[in-house]
Design brief:
Blueprint: H1 12-22, H2 27-44, E1 52-57, H3 63-73, E2 79-84, H4 88-100, E3 108-113, H5 117-124, E4 130-136, H6 145-154, E5 156-167, H7 172-179, H8 194-203, E6 209-218, H9 228-238, H10 243-246, H11 249-262, E7 264-268, E8 272-287
Parallel strand pairs: 1-2, 1-4, 2-3, 4-5
Antiparallel strand pairs: 5-8, 6-8, 7-8
Helix pairs in contact: 1-9, 2-3
Length: 288
């Protein structure tokens, strides 16, 4: 190996930079999640004589969480939202979004926390409970997944709902992690899929409902030599900072080849040839 392999989760600035490149590709997943939230939370959560209490774990730059908050305001006129996000650039972008919607969000109070779930737990413990807890693709960063799931269920209010979104075993994302495990030996990042989490929930006797969503991600830039955006895409997909420079030429070539062989080749007159990566995620609902 040319240098020590580091996960993008270890560098918040690099993570934010690489996420910006892939973010436009995630609109389909976000649209599916919008529909799921709209049909699920208002029907499942019961709140009487107070505002709705929401905890967002790994809130990112806020686009998705803001949409969900605006949806919730149609049913719950008062909302207090605690947003946990360790990447400072993401939290700053989120605050800017909220500022633009200040008039619409007058009845929403925010508690911004630049920290991980484990840091939040160490500071707050179980002293505060929530009606809605949402974790979208953040379970990979929990220090102890099983212990964290028990904790999150414990801080749910009665009649509350915990929503967890993570990759399934069928999606290309997990297949890459499973195919190249040596890339993550030194990382705190957990290479888990929904099957692993379901085992944890069953072991802890935590009941759940679930459904799956699929989406296409255009990774054509990954296969264009010299493309800076392509390198950031590869780093985000692999979860490795500077995949090309951090691994041997043989490992890098094997990774790119496997990725290309696993994508779908689309061709249209308007866009030419595109290489499309199919991702599948599972949405888990835990009620209390």
């Amino acid at each position: 190996m040319a240098t020590t392999i580091r996960s993008i989760s270890e560098d918040s600035e690099y993570y934010a930079k690489s996420f910006k490149i892939i973010k436009p590709q995630l609109t389909r997943i976000q649209a599916d999640l919008d529909k799921i939230f709209e049909k699920t939370i208002p029907k499942k959560v019961i709140v009487r004589e107070r505002g709705l209490k929401v905890l967002g774990i790994g809130s990112g730059s806020g686009e998705l969480e803001l949409k969900h908050t605006l949806q919730l305001l149609r049913t719950f006129p008062q909302i207090s939202l605690t947003s946990i996000e360790p990447v400072p650039d993401h939290l700053d972008e989120y605050k800017q979004l909220v500022a633009k919607e200040a008039d619409t969000l007058k009845s929403v109070t925010y508690d911004w926390r630049q920290q991980t779930l484990d840091q939040y737990r160490h500071e707050v413990g179980a002293s505060k409970k929530y009606d809605v807890i949402v974790s979208i693709n953040s379970v990979y960063y929990f220090d102890d997944v099983e212990d964290s799931m028990i904790y999150l269920r414990d801080i749910l209010e009665d009649d509350g709902i915990l929503i967890i979104v993570l990759v399934s075993e069928n999606g290309m994302t997990y297949r890459l992690w499973d195919r190249f495990p040596h890339l993550y030996d030194a990382s705190h990042f957990h290479r888990i899929c929904s099957l692993h989490l379901l085992d944890v929930l069953q072991k802890c006797n935590i009941k759940y409902d679930s459904e799956r969503i699929r989406s296409d991600v255009d990774l054509t830039e990954c296969f264009i030599e010299g493309s800076e955006d392509g390198q950031y895409l590869l780093d985000f997909v692999s979860h490795v900072i500077d995949l090309r420079g951090s691994t041997s030429p043989e490992c890098y070539s094997e990774f790119v080849s496997f990725l290309k062989e696993s994508t779908r080749k689309d061709s249209t007159e308007e866009n030419g040839v595109r290489w499309v990566f199919v991702t599948e995620q599972e949405v888990l609902y835990i009620h209390k």
